[in-house]
What we know:
Strand content: 5-15%
Largest sheet: 5 strands, antiparallel
Oligomer: single chain
Amino acid sequence: MSANILDASALLYALPNVLPEKKKKLESPQDAITALVHTVFSVLGFRLIGIDESEPTRTYEDNVLPEEWNQHGPGNYAMRYKHDQSSLEFLVKVVKLGSRTLINSIAIETDKAATLDISTADFTSASFFPHDLSASAPPPLVHGYISSNRVDDFVSQLKLTTIQKLIPRLRKDGYTDQADTNAGPSRPRGPDAPPARPRPEQPPYAPEDVFPRAFPRSPLEIGRRDLDPFPSNPFSPPSLFPGNSGDGMFVGPNHPIFGSGMRGRGPGGNGPWGGDGFLPPLGAPPGARFDPVGPGPLRGPPPFPGQGNPRGGHGPLGGQDPDNDELMPPGYVSDHWL
């Protein structure tokens, strides 16, 4: 198996050879990133044909950069390439964007584009530059890229985001395509995996919590309380079915005209979901405004001392009467709801 031609030590050894003979100086971190990108392309067999987007095609011996390669640095750099395994022309631009550096690439004839966005400080040491490689006993170049591991990380990202998109399945001894670890076939979900969509939560007041299920009512018990002359007749045998107590045929304290019979089981005399005694559970959402289905408690004095009905009514003894707020005559003024 061939050695990895994109190993950090191999690239840093080859980098000075692609810089101009009389100007082997890296002025800024962006110079260093651009020179490393060009070294990677050169090792992979890309031929440099220009350092400007519009200049005529040229031939550069051994892919050595011309002296004016960084004349627009550190803000902008441009390099154009050809490759024997493709008929396309490739344009690579390195752009400084605040604290970040963008490497934008495109296959001009097909508009196939690629972008690598990195934090400049993650891969270069600003205090190391400017750095003259032609000086006597210069410090190791790897210090300008922080470490060999950082160089490997940068080259790995460049391969994945740029090289493999410009020339898929590029053939070169010592080079292999890199698999994208962030993509792949979906795996089956385990039994303990969280649901793809959140399950609907139980309402804060479940119907069975507020309205417990009553014992089934016997059809023979329907209407029986209307035949009893007195409520809760002490002389009658106990009912076999619960929930049959009442006022009987005479008006008593539990009659709806006194307001308590039509109150729901929620706070304020209403059902917990906005019901008014006629609506089933969840018949209206909380806070909804709606016309009552039947006569509701209206204004009026309490029917008996000590028995409060905050809304009262207009009926006998301050009870209830039908809600007559629909289609009033024109000009009629009242306190009905709109």
